[in-house]
Amino acid sequence: MLLNSPNRVGIRNSTDYSPFGVELDGRTVSVEGYRYGYQGSEKDNEFKGEGNSYTTEFRQLDPRLGRWMSVDPVFQPWQGSYSSMDNNPLIFNDFSGTQVLGDYYNRNGKYLGNDGINDKQVYVADGVDKTKKGKLKFINAQRLNVTHSTFIKFAGVVDQESYGNMKESFALGTTIVNASRNGGVSIESLITNVNFTKAIATTNYMSFLKSPNNNKYGISSAINAFLYQAGDKTAIDYSNGALLWEGGEFAAKGANQHKSKFYGLVIPKNHWVQFNNFYKTTGKNSLLKDYNVEKVASLSAYFNKDAGVYIVKAAGQNNRVLLRSTAVHGGTIFFGKNASDPKNADYNWKYLSIIPK
Predict the structure, then answer these.
(1) Cβ partners under 8 Å of residue 112, min gap 6
(2) Which H or E run contains 146?
(3) How far apart, in whole angstroms, are the C-alpha atoms of residue 6 and residue 61?
């Protein structure tokens, strides 16, 4: 019972469960309105009745069957896609519905397996072998210090934002890391911020996860990014220190795009030409027509012939020009600090990671 006295501690819920989460008859004491149960998951009583369905971050669990109601977003070739807790709930749990063990990948993004340890972390290894007892042994394994849940979201966002170019994908990953460092905000908060990326993980990344090995650069870009975050010298930042990026919408809207007007920007002519040529020569021009490309794509009115750059000043920032393009890969142009401009000497650069609506 819940005790009302401020000097006492009360019990809100006490339940005994079968291994996969069925509430045992007559073994539950719960305060009305308490929504949580087996392994701390939220009950979804409206779906199948009291205690017969649980909702997690990724999918729903039916404890009577001991099975998830949709496929595992992490492909496991040795077991069914609907299995829960690796069919061993006495040892393992799964709060999010993705994976209960430490997962290992090589640097190319190939899934190598798990170690049977319930730490939910991601590791990168050079390869995998088997011991005499048949257990997996991972060669030169390195922990990436990220949960598998966040890692998969990260990879999914890159997969959705990229047009499939390797350097573009890797640059998107390191840009997220740079923005996280610059703004003092978590990577998790950035990849779920609709103003930072329209490829919100919770709506777009599930489909490509059915088999991570089939994804070309999403997983490998995430590995490179988290190695980069850890200071690994083998990781590469193809964005050249970028904090933001733009794609097809910017190619179409140019100076009318919201980052242009909010921050102001400077783009060397070669970057703008390279960026626009991608859409003109790869069959992506249909994207531009949606924004009436002929009227708004050009930045010609902002071209400074003497400097050889396109400059858009931000009226709301006292005509500052805060962004400078740092790289172009595929259909994405990357932007970092325009710190060399004397007008920006007193600007607090962390605000570049606070994304305007």
Answers:
(1) 104, 105, 106, 125, 127, 128, 136, 138
(2) strand 142-147
(3) 36
pLDDT in tens, the chain (357 residues): 444 556 666 666 778 777 777 788 777 777 666 777 777 777 777 778 777 787 776 678 887 877 777 766 655 555 666 776 666 665 455 655 555 456 889 999 888 887 777 677 899 999 988 777 777 788 999 999 898 878 888 888 888 888 889 999 999 999 999 999 998 888 888 887 766 665 554 444 455 555 444 457 888 999 999 999 999 999 999 999 999 998 887 877 777 777 777 888 898 988 988 888 888 777 655 444 443 444 444 566 677 777 778 888 877 677 888 999 999 999 999 999 999 999 888 888 887 765 544
Least Cα distance to 307 among 281, 270, 353 occurs for 270
pTM of the model: 0.69
Q: Say whether 264 sits in a helix, a strand or coil.
A: coil
d(CA 297, CA 252): 4
* Residue matched to tokens 């930042």: 237
* Size of the chain in residues: 357
